[in-house]
Amino acid sequence: MHRRSFLAASATVALLPNxxxxxxxxHALAExxxxxxxxxxxxxxxxxxxxxxxxxVSGGAESFSVKGxxxxxxxxxxxxxxxxxxxxxxxxxGVAWVKADLDFDIxxxxxxxxxxxxxxxxxxxxWVACQDPALLAKAxxxxxxxxxxxxxxxxxxxxxxxxxxxxxxxxxxxxxxxxGTCLPEFGLLSQATGDDRYRxxxxxxxxxxxxxxxxxxxxxxxxxxxxxxxxxxxATIAPxxxxxxxxxxxxxxxxxDRDCLAMYRACTASILKYQQAKLGDRLWFVxxxxxxxxxxxxxxxxxASFYGGLLAQGGAGATGAAYxxxxxxxxxxxxxxxxxxxxxTGKADIVTNDLRPELADAAFNHWLLDRDERWRHLVRDHxxxxxxxxxxxxxxxxxADVITxxxxxxxxxxxxxxxxxxxWLIFSDCLRFDYTRNYLSTEGNVLLGMKR
Length: 452
Description:
alpha+beta; 3-stranded antiparallel sheet; disordered N terminus
């Protein structure tokens, strides 16, 4: 399914940076982002309407949530981005599809984690934008179908998979990210519906995992949800642990939960003590043994590049900026970040890239805090590289190889919710977004900060 070459020369010429962008004309760049979003939505509307994900090289479509069944994943993920960009006709037709055609009564199994952050979160952010009660009802219906995954374990730790119709669960061996990345979505749903079951279940899972950390405060990346026994010794800020730490902070930021703030501070203190490592003038966070703190490897996962922005949010601005700049150096070297990078050798050990938004996410969070123009420049480079190398005939495609810039025939649903939103918000001075009081989820869903 991989493309062997990049776009034709005639198309590539139009994608090169122009002098206005290089001079820092952020509003012109924002209009370019909106134009690309409008174009990509048109391709999806024509070729994959109501499908989970468009295949941007061939023009086909593929399912994601339930194998062989579509729930409009990309459409739902795009909604609040469309609204923030004032693409109101596109937003309205997306909401109309959700109300008329989206049905979760499916005899099929879904990932609990992915479904919460993508679909429950996407529906909630669209509801926050327009207040249509039908969107809230859809989010509640879906959350009710996910709740059995939290109810089987005596510890309240959710299984990884659940059948949307029968409630049957599977996957008792889980990880911090899949267990702990649900409190903001479920907390907001509880606030909106007056039903505290969702928040309580998410909070219980978050705390149960935290209570099992080691004596030096580190959490490994694999656990049996039925017994609470660890199945791994590796502590990492990368997957499958990454968004657990993000949501400790987010529980405080969005919901004002002081327990979450205390847990975030304790976990971060241990990470900073045992997992920081320097090579030359570059700061990295390495994987270590969760009980001894002994380094396991230097290998870095691109998905961890979000972490500098999180550190800045939590008050460790200088450390966070140093880590983000380490990843910026990798971006400067390859143009597009490889999925895996070894700073001890300077080589990419995984050369694919799944159209990732994490570095842009980190820079956006830095910029929200300090308004330093260097973060806009970093995001500009991220956007222009994506536009140059990821643009395919029918949308934006993942990279099969960041060295050769060969594409793959896949556009993940999060592309619609994450980097296109980060690009727009950092360049546009968006009139529909509160830059001083806001919250974006791990999937980029705006659950606080919409302005009408």
